[in-house]
Design brief:
Distance between the termini: 64 Å
Number of strands: 8
Shape: elongated
Radius of gyration: 36 Å
Strand order of the largest sheet: 1-2-3
Largest sheet: 3 strands, antiparallel
Amino acid sequence: MTPIHRHTVVAKAILALRSIDADQPGVLDEVLRRRLNYTSAQSAGRSRPRDAYSPFVARQLRDAARADIGELFRRFGNLPSEDADENLRNVTAEAHATITAHGRLSSGDRVFKSLYFMRLRRGLPVSTLAEDIHARYHLRAADIPPLLTFLSLETGLEIECCKTLTIDCLQNPGPGTIEIAYVKRRARGAEHKHIRVRDGGLGTPGGLIRKLIEVTAFTRQFVPSDCLWLYYYTGPKQLRAGVEHQQELVDRWTGSHGIVDDDGQPLRLVLSRLRKTHKALWYLKTDGHMARFAVGHTPEIAARHYADIPSLRPLHEATVAEAFAEAAAAAGPIILAPDDKDSWRRDDTASGGGSNVNALLDGEQDVWLAACSGFDRSPFGEVGSPCPQPFWGCLECRNAVITACKLPALVAFQGFIEAQRVGLSAADWAMKFGRAHDRITNQILPAFSDSLIDQARREAEEKSLYLPPEARQ
């Protein structure tokens, strides 16, 4: 038993004893009454958040639910095709007349037995006969999983709230939308809630609920209930209100569609995870913008309960890594490919500052590996003083501008620092040249075409470019 579960069990017992003490003062011992002032002397800890399904699984569930919903509503009112056998046709008509009059046809009824054995003698399917003849008048138990799945995925309603919807839940229609009134029993003191959803055809929550109310109207004549979920289920009761045998039906439905998880294994669908799935998909759609994402919750609750979940962790980690990469790129040099160089010159000329940029791009402010836009304004030293960094510090400086004319020097320096691996230990080489090598190899050279880099290598080999002495220190 987990600490959270243990805390919940103890809390229920304590609440029961508190109720007894309130109703019958003096029955409980004074020591016990003092103990009832708190649930536990230890913290129950933070609960493990229920995870969402991935977009891959959600897509399978939504597609399967949509297909089944369209099929189940098409079957209502469609009587079977006329059979050539007159006796079978007459008994079938009598069975449908019985259902029309009484709402159901039990397996012990004379008409059902006659129909069953007549079909059996003719080699016709009989294994699902009871469900087949009732399915034209009532929802079936097998219809409930796709309906609940679609409704929860589309609205984000908790599954227990979906199961308690009533036929008067649609309220306050608007242009293309409508409100669903529902009860959330866990929200003590604010149980009655509303959510505005899309309203249209069967593909919208409003249209689906309206259609459910319509097709269950016949069943409601025989089951006096305002519950939205009225259906036929094989067994003594047959016509039922409310969702029963939920997991068994859900497993059968996912198995019939071959729905798999992210590892390719058969999915065991937990309906209570659908709300988290809806929230996770909305989080992705809003790009994590908390003001848009936190619908119906404070930003703190939305972040803790619906954004901080395992399935969204890779997204958050990738976002942090991307932010670090952008910050590192902003702190590094400006890399201008030939096309970028020309557009940079044109843009600056149009803004009236062309002389400084021209000097920078024409080589008048060159240092060894780059052009420098602020040799006396180095981010590594005091303003007005010369830059204190070694020449390869340009590779980490925001004042540096690297163009194609600097490729021979960069290629020569890359070859030099790779040759230094022989004379230095791995740790010493990484400390001195590791960052510079990584900048040149993974960030600067890939910004230029292969032909420019090959030309720079030939030029570096032909001219045996000079390296400042500090490179050899």
